[in-house]
């Protein structure tokens, strides 16, 4: 009796233990509504800790303005931030612009109309907003075919409309979608059906030209088919037109970051200098298109469709993918730092992500269908990487070592961390350790530098023994050869005598 | 045993490498070669190839070590070897070639020696080179492959007693023959599969009716 009781007790104990452990692992796996991963040197998917975790969402129903509920957003299309860190939302379907405070808990102001030379004027589906350094609000007033510029007290400064130029077709209708402005008040505008590039306006609303035209790549095979096709067939074929830009942002130096939907999935982001040349740096795998593994025939397969970009700080920028709802963050060298986010209906996932912005240590994403702003807060892992990359951008590689080492304790597959530590050892002259770390980081370029210096060091230290060894070997060979020949000669003579 | 693995036969491998024309001539006419040694050389080449892909320094080698499977590569190399020998033999039989199947096997097998040496040497050298010095690595590989190709050509020329032009023509025909063999074997595999499926479905039908 006592034995069976003890047996039962043991069984219960084991089962509780199992259930405790099981609960643990299940809880861990279900904490996040999305996968967080990265690609290693061999372009394998490596799962990483989460760099950002969802920490809430803001919808119009949560907010009140002057005592009146704000009401749900309707198909909001853009968000941006002011120099003071306030968040501006283009509530496109409701034809209004909403200013929220930094924590997105209070409404600062709502702009529904403005005074246009004595008359009250309103917006019609504003698709894009931007606030300049001078706190001037730029609104892409899409269906009114104009860009409206207001100062911080809602006074009209200027209206950009009807661009006139030789390069524009006769009867061209200007339909701005996204707008941004640099420190010199140059206005960059993405317009609907404008495949030539980003439209630039200077000197008080004068259209000066395009920048960043995406060149069309026509393969030899396509050219061959074009050649043999008849005129009728040709008119039925797909036109080779460049893709339109989807999102736009600007960094402190006035470089324009513009995203586009790339069908090949190789480059979805351009960094345009004031001349309009693409000066973005690509990483080891020459890819700036989001996901690398995109095979398949389902709706979920295919290259990432980058719909917006945000320049963050110290050369880092994040891309928003509407195909799989992922957010890709790259550093100034084009290395993919971390990936998070996903589609779905759970908290922290998207249905139709349209715009991304970076406020302090959070990333906020606007979802047009859910009419919500989703907030993601950085984890320890994400903040370590952000800080280390910022230090590297400033050239303080040695200071970043401590951070990279902490990153390695959280994620020992992080190749960037190995390279970061390896480079620091390289500058401090510890070549053996540098080689070890750089090899783990698969950085053939810096590994080679370390290896070459190490090789020189070894050669320099052992030069005398190498030379001595060589001389001795030479002498031994010469003597051995002569002895061998003598013996052989004798044998030959013997053979001759015997034969 | 002695017939295949005597010291003289082993030494003769290296004599053939250094004197291909002469070496292959006596392989054909004085049975100086050995088929087992030739097969062992092919196996060694397969392992050297896998070892190179696996262990060459990452400065020159972008292959993921997890994708290297030396046994499946061995199977592939042996199959290719057999295919080349048989298709060459079946072509040269019809074109007044003097070589027997075993001479062809030896001719191709012995020409693996420069490949074995160069692949292993290149792997070792790759561990001592840095970025920008890859040329040494690729030089060693190229020299090895070129020497092996020349040896193979001379070998087939000698064992069949062909002129160079005729050798090249038969090599071209050998390629076509290889494709035909592949095609027919695929057909056969498919046919056997169909027959098997036919009887299998009859069996299942009977089982269900019983």
Describe this structure in words.
The complex is a heterodimer of chains A (about 500) and B (about 210). Chain A folds into 2 domains: about 50-380, 6 Propeller (Neuraminidase), CATH 2.120.10.30; about 400-460, no CATH class. In chain A, strand 10 and strand 11 (about 120) form a beta hairpin. In chain A, the strands form 9 sheets. In chain A, strands 3-29-28-27 form a 4-stranded antiparallel beta sheet. A 4-stranded antiparallel beta sheet of chain A has the order 6-7-8-9, with no helix packed on it. In chain A, strands 12-13-14-15 form a 4-stranded antiparallel beta sheet, with no helix packed on it. Chain A has helices spanning about 1-30, 220-230, 230-235, 380-395, 395-410, 415-430, 430-440, 445-460, 465-499; strands at about 35-40, 45, 50-60, 65, 70, 80, 85-90, 95-100, 105-110, 115, 120, 125-130, 135-140, 145-150, 155-160, 175-180, 185-190, 200, 205-210, 245-250, 255-260, 270, 305-310, 315-320, 325-330, 335-340, 355-360, 360-365, 370-380. The termini of chain A are far apart. Chain A is an alpha+beta fold. Mean pLDDT of chain A is about 85; it is low at about 20-30. Chain A has 9 helices and 29 strands. In chain A, helix 6 runs parallel beside helix 8 (about 445-460). Chain A is about 30% helix and about 30% strand. Chain B is an all-alpha fold and about 210 residues long. Chain B has one domain (about 1-210). Helix content of chain B is about 80%, strand content about 0%. Chain B is built from 9 helices and no strands. The longest helix of chain B has about 45 residues, at about 165-210. The interface of A and B includes residues 447, 448, 449, 451 and 455 of A.
């Amino acid at each position: 009796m006592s034995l069976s009781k003890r047996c039962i007790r043991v069984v219960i104990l084991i089962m509780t233990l199992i259930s405790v452990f099981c609960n643990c692992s299940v809880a861990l796996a279900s904490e996040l509504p999305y996968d967080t991963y990265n690609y290693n040197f061999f372009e394998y998917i490596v799962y990483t800790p989460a760099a950002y975790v969802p920490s809430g969402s803001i919808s119009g129903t949560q907010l009140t303005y002057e005592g009146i509920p704000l009401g749900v957003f309707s198909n909001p299309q853009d968000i941006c931030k002011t120099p003071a860190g306030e968040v501006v939302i283009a509530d496109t379907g409701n034809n209004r612009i909403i200013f929220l405070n930094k924590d997105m808990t209070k409404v600062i102001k709502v702009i529904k109309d403005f005074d246009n030379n004595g008359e009250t004027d309103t917006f019609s589906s504003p698709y894009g907003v931007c606030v300049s350094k001078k706190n001037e609000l730029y609104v892409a007033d899409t269906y009114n075919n104009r860009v409206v510029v207001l100062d911080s007290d809602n006074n009209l400064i200027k209206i950009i409309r009807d661009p006139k130029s030789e390069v524009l077709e006769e009867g061209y209708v200007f339909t701005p979608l996204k707008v941004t402005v640099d420190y010199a008040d140059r206005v960059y505008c993405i317009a609907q059906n404008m495949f030539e590039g980003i439209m630039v306006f200077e000197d008080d609303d004068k259209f000066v030209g395009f920048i960043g035209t995406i060149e069309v790549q026509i393969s030899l095979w396509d050219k061959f088919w074009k050649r043999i096709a008849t005129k009728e067939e040709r008119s039925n074929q797909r036109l080779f037109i460049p893709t339109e830009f989807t999102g736009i942002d600007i960094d402190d130096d006035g470089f324009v970051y513009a995203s586009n939907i790339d069908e090949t999935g190789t480059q979805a982001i351009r960094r345009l200098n004031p001349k309009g040349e693409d000066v973005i740096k690509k990483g080891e795998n020459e890819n700036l298109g989001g996901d690398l593994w995109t095979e398949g025939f389902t709706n979920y397969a295919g290259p990432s469709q980058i719909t917006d970009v945000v320049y963050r700080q110290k050369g880092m920028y994040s891309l928003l993918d509407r195909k799989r709802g992922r957010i890709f963050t790259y550093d100034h060298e084009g290395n993919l730092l971390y990936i998070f986010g996903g589609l779905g209906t759970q908290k922290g996932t998207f249905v139709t992500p349209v715009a991304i912005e970076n406020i302090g240590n959070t990333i906020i994403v606007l979802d047009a269908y859910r009419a919500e702003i989703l907030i993601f807060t950085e984890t320890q892992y994400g903040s370590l990487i952000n800080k280390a990359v910022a230090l590297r951008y400033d050239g303080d590689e040695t200071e970043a070592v401590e951070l990279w080492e902490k990153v390695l304790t959280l994620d020992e597959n992080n190749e960037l961390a190995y390279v970061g530590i390896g480079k620091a050892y390289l500058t401090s002259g510890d070549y053996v350790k540098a080689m070890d770390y750089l090899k783990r980081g698969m950085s053939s370029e810096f590994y080679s530098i370390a290896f070459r210096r190490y090789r020189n060091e070894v050669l320099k230290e052992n030069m005398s023994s190498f030379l001595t060894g060589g001389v001795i070997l030479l002498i031994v060979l010469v003597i051995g050869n002569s002895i061998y020949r003598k013996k052989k000669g004798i044998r030959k003579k013997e053979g001759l005598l015997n034969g | 045993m002695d017939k295949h693995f005597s010291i003289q036969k082993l030494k003769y491998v290296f004599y053939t490498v250094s004197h291909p024309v002469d070496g292959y001539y006596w392989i054909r006419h004085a049975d100086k070669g050995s088929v087992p040694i030739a097969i062992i050389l092919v196996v060694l080449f397969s392992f050297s190839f896998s070892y190179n892909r696996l262990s060459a320094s990452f400065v020159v080698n972008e292959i993921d070590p997890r994708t290297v499977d030396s046994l499946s590569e061995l199977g592939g190399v042996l199959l290719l070897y057999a295919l080349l020998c048989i298709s060459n033999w079946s072509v040269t039989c019809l074109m007044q070639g003097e070589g027997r199947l075993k001479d062809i096997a030896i001719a191709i097998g012995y020409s693996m020696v420069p490949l074995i040496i160069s692949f292993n040497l290149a792997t070792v050298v790759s561990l001592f080179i840095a970025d920008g010095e890859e040329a040494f690595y690729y030089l060693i590989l190229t020299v090895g492959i070129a020497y092996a190709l020349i040896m193979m050509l001379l070998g087939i020329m000698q064992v069949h007693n062909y002129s160079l032009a005729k050798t090249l023509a038969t090599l071209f025909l050998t390629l076509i023959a290889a494709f035909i063999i592949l095609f027919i074997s695929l057909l056969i595999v498919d046919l056997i599969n169909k027959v098997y499926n036919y009887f299998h479905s009859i069996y299942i039908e009977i089982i269900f009716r019983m």
